[in-house]
User: Fold this.
Amino acid sequence: EPTVRTELMEQIPPIAIFLQESRPKFPTAFFEYLMPIVVRYLTDVNNQVRKAGQEALLILLEQDLVAQSDIENKVCPILLDLSAPDSDDEYKVEAVNIICKMASMLNRTTVEHMLLPRFCELCSDGKLFQVRKICAANFGDICNAVGQEATERLLIPKFFELCSDSVWGMRKACAECFMAVSYTTSPEVRRSKLSPLFISLISDTCRWVRQAAFQSLGPFISTFANPSSAGLYIREDGTLSIRPSAQDVNSNSCQPSNNRTLIASSTNAS
Assistant:
């Protein structure tokens, strides 16, 4: 019964945590018995079971309960298979969604070597606009996960494609994550490539795209500031914040207050 399998999946994370705390008594129980069930249910015929399996997997990754070998040898191959060009549409949409959510929880080498090539392929998926939209919505997180070099070499060309997609929702999603993408690149790339690209979004024929671009204008401009002097940085949740310098704090300068006002106004506008 699918309901039984769904209920089972919901119990996997707490059981895994218990086993982790009792590892001397159960050194291999999770890897031998529970992890194979999680992986198998990612391809279950029932979508509720698959959803429960995906949620369980993300919790396990977030709690750092999955071994690196299992990630590379069991989890990633399944997701790559489900997101293949000839995969079922429903499975592909689910796979790209979980790939994007996983990226921030895995080490950079694993993401870059195992998941990034497939993500780049999915950005150009001509069959399902839902797949491209998921890629566009999570583009900033992927850039942050792989770092500047891979972003500029592999992801920026794909970002250009998505920013000129025929579906306006794609372009709107790109405008919304523009700051996160810009923050991962070098000042030269921001100036020479991303600035003209942003102008195209702010001049888009669709008013929803233009509105999203104008809301991202302040945050995008902030990425041109020198972090060491302005104290601007991106939090883990993707929001822009400020870290006053020690000199400003000691001198009671009004500059941090002015910066906070600037960031607050940008945040409110966003």
Observations:
- DSSP finds 16 helices and two strands in the chain.
